[in-house]
Write the structure tokens for this entry.
Amino acid sequence: MGDVSEYMQEFKQRFSRWYNKTKRRYGTLWSKSFTSVMVEDSVPALRTMTACLDLNPVRAGIVKDPKDYRLCGYAAALAGAKAIRQGIMSFLEPAGWAKAAAEYRRLLSVTGGSAKRGDKAVLDPQTIKAELARGGELSLGRGDTFVCASGI
């Protein structure tokens, strides 16, 4: 199958039938239909889409900061996932992971301030200003600055 939308529709229908038969129930399992979005093949589009995906747990109200959601790519990169770090560095182009992490965090702040959900911004203006003033560097909570030990 070459079309992701068709694949997801088929997958959801088959799984629903199997689950309903197994559990002796009926009705739909999915609250929303799958949506597919075309993304422009450019570095700015990739930066924006990556930031939007990493901000999903914030938009959903699960966490206040994407670094706190262990299932997002940004948190995995901070935890040391080399492949994700390399991916982030590929569209930011800084020298080293520490600079890339700070630049990406600034990008998350700016994107979080402009990405709307209804009439509310994802991040409040004070949070964005504080993040930009820190230069995107993470605090350890004691006033210390986050320092990346890895060169990647």
Q: What stands out?
A: The longest strand covers residues 116-117.
